[in-house]
Amino acid sequence: MLRALSAVLWQATFTHSHNEIIHLDQMHCSLFARSPRLDGCDPERMRAEIRDYFHTTFDRYEQLFETLACEEAYYKKPIPLRHPLIFYLGHSATFFINKLLLVGLISVRIHPQFESLFSVGVDEMSWDDLSDTHYDWPRVAELRDYRDQVRAGGPGDSRRPADPANRLG
Asked: Burial level of 114, CB count in 10 A (0-12/13-18/19+)?
């Protein structure tokens, strides 16, 4: 989603003056942090960069949803081959939890029901189960609480190394 928004911003620059292009490019860099480099020699500095990047991207993603005018908007599908927007708010947090579990950085799920509900279904496939009757979408406040728990239990505690004994598979 961030990449698509970034592309829209960049394409919009072609109709403006050179100074406006520079301004939009600078705005793009301040809105969308660069991915951290992982080739450094200082593990503590790298952990801090990854943690900061995680929180920055988490913030930007949530800001996209703050543009919705009312809670009902979260339950509308942008197009028939997509889930309602509430799915995408939950999906990114679930993605982080599932990846942290996979590499052994955490060993317990935060909300197993959410981590199942929001884990699949991003692809635009006609065979995806997109029937509204098959989903009991949570309230927005409930999902925001979950996202807060993910943020608190996610990469913010990156000082703890992965324990190979806890890794799956």
From this structure: buried
The pLDDT tens digits for 4-50 are: 544 444 444 444 455 554 444 554 456 677 888 888 889 899 888 88
CA distance 84 to 79: 9
Closest among 117, 12, 138, 11 to 71, alpha carbons compared: 138
Q: How many CB atoms within 10 Å of residue 34?
A: 7
Three-state secondary-structure class, residue 89: helix
pTM of structure: 0.67
Give backbone dihedrals phi and psi of 38, rounded to 5 degrees, phi first: -110, 20
Contacts of 153 (CB under 8 A, 6+ apart): 106, 110
Is residue 105 within 8 A of residue 160, CB to CB? The reply is: yes
- In the block, residue with structure tokens 């990114």: 92
